[in-house]
């Protein structure tokens, strides 16, 4: 793709011992939600950078849609198991009961402006419902900041 590949990172899914995803199922699900929600927004954020390559764009948007299905399912599973009361999609930038350290994943999701139009004014639909209709993109620096919590 014209660049030098990056070195394979070493991951620490405990975030320096702050989480126990391998021994605590609710924590595993919470981190799954955080990773999947990040993935949805990360792929959307980079789509514009690969628009010139139809093969890469198609692959990226296919992965984006799979990430979205995974995110929805794990969010619903957490609610079904009683670990949260969230919907299968993000509402107004809320991280539900996830730790505060995950808020960067959800920042910006309260946006109601699309195509230069305040969709709440256009439709009369409340802001919570409008924000549920779009996943806002994350840029590379935002994604790396989120990922840095889990890099050893």
Automatic annotation (TrEMBL):
Query: Mind telling me which Pfam families this protein's record contains?
Result: Ferritin_2 (PF13668)
Query: At the top level of its lineage, which domain of life is listed?
Result: Bacteria
The protein's name is Dessication-associated protein
> What species is given as this protein's source?
Winogradskyella psychrotolerans RS-3
């Amino acid at each position: 793709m014209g660049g030098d590949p990056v070195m394979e990172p070493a991951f620490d899914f405990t975030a320096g011992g702050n989480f126990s995803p391998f021994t605590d199922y609710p924590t595993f699900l919470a981190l799954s939600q955080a990773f999947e929600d990040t993935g949805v927004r990360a792929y959307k954020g980079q789509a514009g950078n690969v628009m010139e390559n139809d093969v890469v764009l198609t692959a990226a948007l296919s992965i984006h849609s799979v990430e979205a299905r995974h995110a929805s399912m794990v969010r619903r599973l957490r609610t079904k198991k009683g670990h949260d009361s969230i919907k299968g999609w993000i509402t107004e930038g809320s991280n539900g009961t996830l730790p505060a350290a995950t808020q960067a994943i959800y920042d910006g999701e309260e946006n109601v402006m699309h195509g230069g139009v305040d969709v709440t004014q256009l439709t009369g639909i409340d802001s919570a419902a409008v924000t549920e209709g779009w996943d806002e993109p994350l840029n590379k620096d935002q994604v790396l900041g989120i990922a840095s919590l889990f890099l050893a």
